[in-house]
Design goal:
Blueprint (H helix, E strand, L loop, with lengths): L1 H6 L2 H4 L7 H10 L11 E6 L4 E6 L8 E5 L13 H11 L2 E5 L11 H14 L7 E6 L1 H15 L7 E5 L8 H8 L8 H12 L22 E6 L5 H13 L4 E6 L14 H19 L2
Parallel strand pairs: 3-4, 3-5, 5-6, 6-7, 7-8
Antiparallel strand pairs: 1-2, 2-4
């Protein structure tokens, strides 16, 4: 039922253009009313000098472990409210509290605006938590920002987080045509014409194979343990599999879970989709394993 409703969604089917972007953003914002945070969740604003975010806390979470979460939305949509339920569910499964980054959007704020704000948030957390108690997580475009941030953390010789989790991350903006040829007709969630719009809005004058903006192209050596989820038929799958292969070649501890018959970031629909609840449970186990030393 969820899959069928997504397939007929006018927001997903119709092309996104500069002319209709604001209309699409309003429709996207309205979707947040369909997602409800679990009982007992509290949400409070966190506005600092160089970034804006919100705290998402759930009952019985460990106060000494924090997750910096970076939401998806093609770099152009504000998913802060829409992702609250997903973030709260992950926080509950991992027994931690979360800082959800409300980053600046493209095309008004192209690369590297979102990464700079994510870096500012990470530096801020490092002043409050030991690095082995910090987790990075994100989905789709936000997953791309997480992987880009790991490049910056390593390049600036900052301490690594305990681990990182990315759900259907965008890893490779250069080999888009190959991805479209392989899964372009199967993915009903991210359409090929909209994918190119997202990339153009975010990259603008930045080369699509930039080693930070397009995280596949930089060295992955020194990355912390990674958990990556993707569906077999989504557009990003070919790039994600290549990223996982490269990570393993460069001796990164990476776990890869590939769904079948689902869709891009199916985790958002955990209230209705048992496979999403199962995937979130796996995330919780991974995070607890790397933040408790067990």
């Amino acid at each position: 039922m969820v899959r069928n409703s997504l397939k007929v969604s006018s927001l997903l089917r119709g092309p996104i253009t500069v002319e209709n972007l604001e209309k699409k953003r309003k429709a996207y914002a309205n979707l947040s009313r369909r997602f409800r945070v679990p009982k007992g969740t509290t949400i409070t604003a966190a506005k600092e000098k160089n970034f804006t975010a919100e705290w998402i806390r759930v009952p019985d979470s460990r106060v000494d472990v924090v997750m910096l979460y970076i939401h998806g939305g093609g770099f152009i949509f504000d998913s802060t409210k829409l992702h609250r339920e997903l973030i709260a569910r992950i926080a509950k499964a991992a027994k931690l509290h979360a800082l959800s980054l409300d980053y600046s959007l493209a095309p008004e704020h192209p690369y590297p605006a979102a990464i700079n704000e994510a870096l500012a948030a990470y530096r801020w957390l490092l002043n409050k938590y030991p690095p082995h108690k910090i987790v990075l997580a994100g989905d789709s475009a936000g997953g791309s920002v997480v992987l880009s941030l790991l490049h910056v953390i390593r390049n600036e010789k900052l301490p690594n987080p305990a681990c990182a989790v990315t759900l259907s991350p965008a890893t490779d903006a250069y080999n888009v045509e190959a991805a479209i040829l392989e899964n372009g007709k199967k993915d009903f969630f991210v359409r090929p014409n909209n994918l190119n719009f997202f990339i153009d809005a975010y990259f603008q004058q930045t080369p699509r194979n930039h080693p930070i903006a397009s995280p596949f192209f930089g060295s992955l050596q020194g990355f912390p343990p990674l958990l990556i989820h993707a569906d077999r038929d989504e557009l990003f799958n070919i790039g994600i599999r290549r990223f996982v292969e490269k990570a393993r070649e460069e001796k990164v501890d990476v776990s890869f879970y590939e769904g079948a018959g689902l869709w891009h970031v199916w985790h958002l629909f955990a209230r209705s989709v048992p496979e999403a609840r199962e995937a979130i449970g796996q995330i919780g186990e991974f995070v607890q394993r790397h933040t408790t030393g067990l």
